[in-house]
């Protein structure tokens, strides 16, 4: 009897441990999410520019994704939209280009007057500080200046969950030939300078009950490459919403048809294509995917997406 009792206790322990492990392996899903565009070309109010930035409010936390082009754009647009950015401590920079990083120093300087921790953690992809041929990498200079103010830079080469249900893709594997960069620049490699394909390009991925929400700055790694990387490195799930810039402005009809087919396979329902996505490209994708003007829209300053209401397009983009 004593042996049977011990065996029962062991079985009970194993059962409880298995349930606990299974619970811990369940991917966290965020409960509340709102994404508001603060920089892109179209604007109902505020300032339009060639750049991108979005405020991500997730489960009571604020994150700024990219910082626009001109130093004052995001700051002024937030004021016009009556959005307080002083409590934003985390900034994500999708890549090194000035139209996504131009507002960071001004935002840090102005907002730290109200909150010393404002814009104090900057998340970037590995390679953002690499030497580029023929020009200074302004990100390196900016990093040195901001670190003197106490700002911390965190680099990612692999997918990483930075908050429950909130992921960064890290460097994205370029499986498909989505050539979303100019090809005119060179970056320092192990054996000299090579073509700069913006290796640090990184997206934000948020896990919800309806699937992943993907936010990209320019999508230099390719929207399909990024989606495949997401489900491979984080966990398998539909990617139901894509927001930001996806560098499809120069895509021909064949590439757009291929992209539309892939997006449907991922279960995409909502798209706010801003910045370098291309207005005509967005319309072509919408037609190919048999979507509508409520779910697939051109991004504009002040537009938003929430889990409860979906896409809320700016007046000019409806």
TrEMBL record:
Single GO biological process annotation from the record: antibiotic catabolic process
Pfam family, one: Lactamase_B
Cofactor(s) recorded in Swiss-Prot or TrEMBL: Zn(2+)
Transmembrane segments: none
Entry-linked InterPro entries: Beta-lactamase_class-B_CS (IPR001018), DHPS-like_MBL-fold (IPR041712), Metallo-B-lactamas (IPR001279), Metallo-beta-lactamase_dom (IPR052926), RibonucZ/Hydroxyglut_hydro (IPR036866)
Protein origin, superkingdom: Bacteria
Keywords: Hydrolase, Metal-binding, Signal, Zinc
SUPFAM superfamilies the UniProt entry points to: Metallo-hydrolase/oxidoreductase
Residues in Metallo-beta-lactamase domain copies: 52-120
Signal sequence coordinates: 1-23
A GO term, aspect molecular function: beta-lactamase activity
Protein name per Swiss-Prot or TrEMBL: MBL fold metallo-hydrolase
Lineage start: Bacteria, Pseudomonadati, Pseudomonadota, Gammaproteobacteria, Alteromonadales
